[in-house]
Amino acid sequence: MKPDLAVEPLDSWIQTDGKPLIIAGPCSAETEEQLVETARQLAALGQVHAIRAGVWKPRTRPGSFEGMGEPALAWIQRAKAETGLPFAVEVATPQHIELALKYGVDILWVGARTTVNPFNVQEIADALKGVDVPVLVKNPVNPDLALWVGAFERIAGAGITKLGAIHRGFSTGEASKYRNIPMWQMAIELRTMFPQLPIIGDPSHMAGKRAYLNELAQMAMDLNYDGLIVESHIDPDKAWSDAAQQLTPAAFGEMLEHLHIRQLESSDREFQSAMEQIRVKIDSVDRQLVEHLAARMSLVEKLAEYKRDNNVSMFQPDRWKEILESRKQLGAKLNLYPELVEEIYKIIHMESIRKQTEVINSAPVA
Ligand code: PEP
Ligand code: MN
């Protein structure tokens, strides 16, 4: 099945003036005062396009703060009225969706603990049929791209076209300085499958700690993400959930000031023509690379025929060792990482063994 999604561009549902989409707000709505004041300070930065808050909190263990539920939706209405900004909330059940929409929530997101479960995602998709609302889907807790893709397919199947991905990192059991390991290549793979799907970085849930927010937000920007969702709280240390990773609105404003946002393309004529010239050269070098690979394979094929006709074994370990070492040394002299040359030669060697096996098991040409 060739995956495809009908996705509307981000600027069809939120105005960002060509800048990355910035969503910020507390992990959880705790009190009316905390929510409205955080929203007010964030709006005052002039750089935030939407406010977030958790109203129902999916907790790993029972007994932790599980969110204020419906009463918090009324505070959201006030925060919206005071700031004029749209509001995003996590939904995990059809009831959450019904309530969020009833109170005028503008953007829904599916949390990492929900994306892992196709039953839950399908229930959410069914509840979204006939509704026109933007839905952002966080990556599943575990690094399984198919689960993430499946969630988009189910929600798109319900007719939702205002879609976006939130990359919040993965829990892998491996030791890491981050709470959730980013595994950037997962998001890049998603982008390759669905180039039109906006991707928003969530440095807060990747980091787990304030100290790592900057570097993760910068990395997301360097990878040309379409935006960021960051947790911000007027008094982070006293937050009822995710205290260690939240920033005051002022600290968040400072972080935004220091973010370096690169342009995807430059319209500068000279720059474009320089790029074009280099690309033409790269295309030509790549062509030679592939032609050389093909030439090498045809030599291997000849070698295999000699081995077969003289009954010599296919794999000669000393020769392979010598190839690997001499190519790595050559690479090092030319400023290439030895690991790069080693990995490439391992792949070439595997293919060469496959080809030789094929030749040796074929009958000699009469
Ligand atoms: C959150 O956004 O507060 C949250 C619960 O995140 P995640 O689903 O990424 O754990
Ligand atoms: Mn959180």
From TrEMBL:
Its EC number is 5.4.99.5. Keywords: Transferase. It comes from the Bacteria. Pfam families: CM_2, DAHP_synth_1. It is an enzyme of class 5 (isomerase). Residues 269-360 form the Chorismate mutase domain. This is chorismate mutase.
